[in-house]
Known about the structure:
disordered C terminus; about 30% helix; 8-stranded antiparallel sheet; disordered N terminus; 9 helices
Amino acid sequence: MMVKCVQCTIALRKFLLLWLFGAAQLACSADWEILPPWAASPPWPDKVELASPDPVLGAGDIYETWAYTEAFAKRFSNLPLEQASKDMPPNLQAVVFRVYRQTLGPGWTTTVPLYYCAMDLYLDASITPEEQPMPNREVFPPEWIKTGNSLRRLKPVQEADRQSKAAQDALRVGHLPRYSSVAFLDGLLDSRYSLLGAEFRPNALPGINLLTLGATNFTTMVWPARPGQRYILSVLGNDPYQEQQILEQARKDPERTRSPGHFVQLHTVNLIRSGARYDWNPDDTIKGLFAMPDEFVERMLKKVLAVKTFNRCLEMEEHIEKNHYRKMPQEAKDNIRAGCQAMRETGQTYDAFERKFGFRDADEVRMWKLEGINKP
């Protein structure tokens, strides 16, 4: 019986890893595996904070957590002045982390509603993204009109703000310019780094530009930080990893000995191995580099863990129900169902992929295996 259980566990692990990463990604060269210890994510907590009645959103259709300045709070009647953050970086009036639930519609393998995350940054008008425009390829279902951005739920005190808000509420996402933004942790550069689509609304309010980081159900924009690290958003194309600049150079390489993407990844691995670092300071906001307030990030991370774990269970349960896992042993399917049900009842995180060191989704470790971090 013990041998049978071990064999099932091994088979389940191999199947799910192949399903998650794909055979091509698992075939990365051994050279890419040698990363220093700080490239590994700290573990996520073992327990999820359960809300009610919806375990992630609570009583409403949307969960939002804010950090804002006193000056910003005075402009809106529904922002308590006493809750203004004392840790806001210069040139950032407010930041909002938002979670909502929606379906992707026909053509997607997962049809159950999943949880999605987005972030709004209310920037001083002097911070205007002008680099790295990206095409508008997002297709937002009807639910987006209901959730929208956080500006929809603000209650302005001044007439000028009311007029600007009304004009913004009338806009559709397809009419708005889109850019790219970069998210990373300061200190020693590591493997957790994401390029995010962004929706930009110039002069959304008098003296304020609004930048919305695009929704993602895998919430690759945030990870647990090590002590002393801060979560950094870059909105003007300044990138300590220099990925965009290196990519442009690689595309101009006439020999094309490697693909541009491969060239960039090797460059980033070399940066990490060399111990390259970026240390944020308040003057960097002029360059579009913003450190998020620590208390805000702490609240955000708790909700992100809930999004990750519940989305994982929702997707796997639907695939089991639709018999997409035809080769998966029934015992493994029963284990997934039981683990997800226990998570809903007790909040105990359930990792069906058995990655013991935390929820390391593909983008969090940039598709590099970390088993070789101690190799010479």
